[in-house]
Every structure is written in structure tokens, then in C-alpha cells.
Amino acid sequence: MMSARIWRLAAADERQTEALAAELKLPLPVARLLVARGYTTPDLAEYFLRARLSDLSEPERLPNIPIAIERIAQALATHEKIIIFGDYDADGLTSAALLVRFLRALGAEVEAFIPHRLDDGYGLTAPALAKCIEQHHPQLIVTVDCGTCSPEAIRSTNIPVIVTDHHDPAGEISPAFAVINPKLGSDPTLRQLAGVGVAFKLCHALLKYLRRSAPQSVVDLKDFLDLVAIGTVADVVPLTAENRILVRHGLLRLAETKNCGLAALMEVAGLAENPDAWHIGFVLGPRLNAVGRLGNAAKVLELLLTDDQGQALELAQQLDAANRERQEIEKRIVTEAMHEIDGHVQRGRGHQRLACHVPRAAVGTASRVLTGVGVSYSLDQRIAPHCDACLASWTTDSYEPSCFGVAAPAVYTSATLPVPAYTAPSAPVASDNISTSAPLSIDSTVSSAFNV
Ligand SMILES: [Mn+2]
Fold first, then answer.
1. Ligand 1 center to residue 91 CA distance, Å?
2. With 0-12 CB in 10 A as exposed, 13-18 as middle and 19+ as buried, what is 438?
3. In 3D, which of 92, 149, 95 has the Cα closest to residue 124?
4. How far is the CA of 145 from the centre of ligand 1 (A)?
5. Separation of 198 CA from ligand 1 center, angstroms?
6. Disulfide: which of 73, 336, 389, 452 matches 348 by Cβ 3.0-4.6 Å?
7. Cα–Cα dist 427/407, whole Å
8. How far is the CA of 34 from the centre of ligand 1 (A)?
9. How far is the CA of 143 from the centre of ligand 1 (A)?
10. How far is the CA of 225 from the centre of ligand 1 (A)?
């Protein structure tokens, strides 16, 4: 199908373009695109084009790596029980699977704990940590994709915790044994790593450390790159710099994966061709995220850790079914949310466009619900950020009867479209009648869908 988009090339220095094209024997348009994106020298352009594993930076550039790997090496040497504290989304789950598989390959006694989305909430909390400790009695805890700012949880236990995470530090940094988070470091390119990228760096550093005393290690880090690619793409971090290298090689690995859970998932999803980033984002990622969003992500972890083909196939089918269930719930919630919003739409006063009185609570609830089930688009499609009639912003927090967040539905505002057949509420919604405390039908949908 022809795309309706018109591509306009960003300006690029012609001298640099010609020099780059000559040096790397590139077609001029390719060189121009590279220069326009800042890959102005042959070194920079090669870094991007080749995306070699050998171009990955030293893992020690992440903060607090040395102290963390020494502690993990000690746990390996003394056969301490290690627990990986994960997260229920694709990034957190692939990170947990990566560390469990990698440390097991090194002979560690290691299990993963994934908090339950509804029972335990997000991240490293004191109650979730207590549950993890009660279940597994670990002697060392390593978090993945969470824990940077969880001081209460860390203070609630004497067991050493190594935090690996990539989230923005917002608040007091955990007083953990070590906090490894690129956002606490000074290297801007590493700040884009997903949680699984940080976990991979930890593995890399540990392997380097162990090879100093035992150079003949049988563990090959490349075997785990399929998990790294999945977590990185599914977490929607920019696919540039080191993420591009990890994903490029991870995709190659995924095409011939030794992970029988991933192989089963690709089979069930009908993925016959060599996977690319799109397949992770739209085929594999949703199937990995669905179970966690609907409740318990333990099944995904089981899938990523199993070496039994029969079990893998069964789990993959369950994930596939959960994804279909998630799609149904999503469709219903979107319909109800749109209906809810439309219920507040009324004609603007003398304006060509329609004005829409949307109680913030309705928008907020809808957005939260949509985010909660992993809907990747926002309601912006439906609601413009400003009211064309009075220029009020709908981000107003308090309810203002005169013009609360009046917004024109963007779908109705195109100059080329006639005002569409629009079913107005039988009695025009008087703004005075809009109460932010009025029960919204969407709430009941949420409660029935998630038992909350
Ligand atoms: Mn993440």
C-alpha cells in the first residue's frame, strides 16, 4: 500500500555527506541520512551501521558494578541462595529469566520472585520483599527493573540487596548493598538501557571477573541475547547506541533460539519468518505482558525458564489465550471510555466545532484503566488538549463549572470533514450537572475485569 506520508529529509552538511559516502563507499542518500542524524564521521557511522558486539562499552562504566559482582561471586563460591526480585512486565520478566539462567549456568542456587501485580503492586515494596523472603529464604537478593528508590523495603531487611534498575531516580535512593542504575551514572548513552540491558551488563561484568580466575568458562553470554532483545524492544526504549547493538544480535539469536519457551511462543504465535523488532513489539511482547497485566506473571517466568518442550508449548498456549482475553477486555473498556466521553459532548456555543465537556475524572479514569491494561495509545485522538472555544486547558485539576476542560474532539475538527452525524445526549449536559464524583460506568468495568 502506498503511504500517504511525504518524507522530507533533514538538512545535512553536503561536504560531510560526500566525505562519508566516499570513505565508507555508501550511496549518497544513505550518507546524507546518517549525517543528518549526527553520524557525521566514518567512526560514528560505522558504529551505527555495523552495530558490533565488540562495540559494547565496558560494563564497569555502570555505577557500583565492582562491589556488586564481588558480592555475587562470593555468593557463588559459598553456595548462598540468591533470589532475583523481578517485575511483571516483559522487561522485568526477561531480566529475571536472564539472571536466573545465567547464574544457574555458573552453578548458582538461584530462583526468581515476581511480585503479583494486583496483590503486591509495582516494584520493590516492603510487603512484597517480606513475601519473597518468607517464600525463598534467600541470602542475597538481586532486583531487576526495580528498586532504585525503595528505601523502606531495603531498611525492612538485613539481607543484602543488589539493585539493578533503569528507572529515573525519583526520591531517596535505596540504601542497598549496591544500586546499579545507568541514570545514576554519567554516561548518557547508557541511560537508554532497558532493565534487561542493565542486567546483561551485570552478567557481562561478572563473567569478566570470573574469567580472571577461571578463563575456561563455558558460559557464552551471546546465548542470552534473545531475552535481552525482547525486554529491550518491549520496554520501548530508543533503539540507538548500545540498545541497537543488543537488539540486532538478540534478534539473530532469537531466530535460532535455544530457549524452548521462546521457541514455543513463536510457534504458537505463528511466527515463521525471522523475527524483527516489530514482531517483538506486536507479536511476542503482548503475549508476554498479558498474563502479568491480568494478574500473575509467574507463568511467563516459567515459560522463559523451562527446558521441557511439552511444558513450554502448554504455557505458550496459555499465554496466547490470555492475550486474546486481554484484547477483549481492552476493546470493551475502550468502547465504554469513548462512550463515556461522548456522553459529555455538546455543541460549542456558536462555534463550528464541537465542544466537549469532559470531567477530568472521566478522562483520568479512562487513561488509568487504559494504561493499566497496556493500551498503548492515549485518548488524545479523541480529546484535543485545549478547548478551541475558550482556550481552557483540560488539564485543570479542579472542576470549574463554566468551562471544565472543554475540549474539541480532534476526530471531529478536521476542516475537510463535515460535522458528523452526532448523537447528542438527550438533554444537553449542563455543566453544573457534571460532578467529578459521579460514578462512571468505566469503574464497574474495571472492577469486574480485575476484581479490584
Ligand atoms: Mn523496564
1. 5
2. exposed
3. 149
4. 5
5. 10
6. 389
7. 19
8. 29
9. 12
10. 16
- CA 404 / ligand 1 centre spacing (Å): 35
Q: Please give the distance, rounded to the nearest whole angstrom, from the Cα atom of residue 167 to the centre of ligand 1.
A: 7
Phi, psi angle pair for 316, to nearest 5°: -65, -40
Strand partners, 393: 386
Going from the Cα of 197 to the center of ligand 1, the distance in angstroms, rounded, reads: 9
Residue 109, phi then psi, degrees to nearest 5: -95, 105
Instruction: Please give the single-letter amino acid code of residue 106.
Output: L
CA 416, 422, 424: angle at the middle one, nearest 5?
A: 140
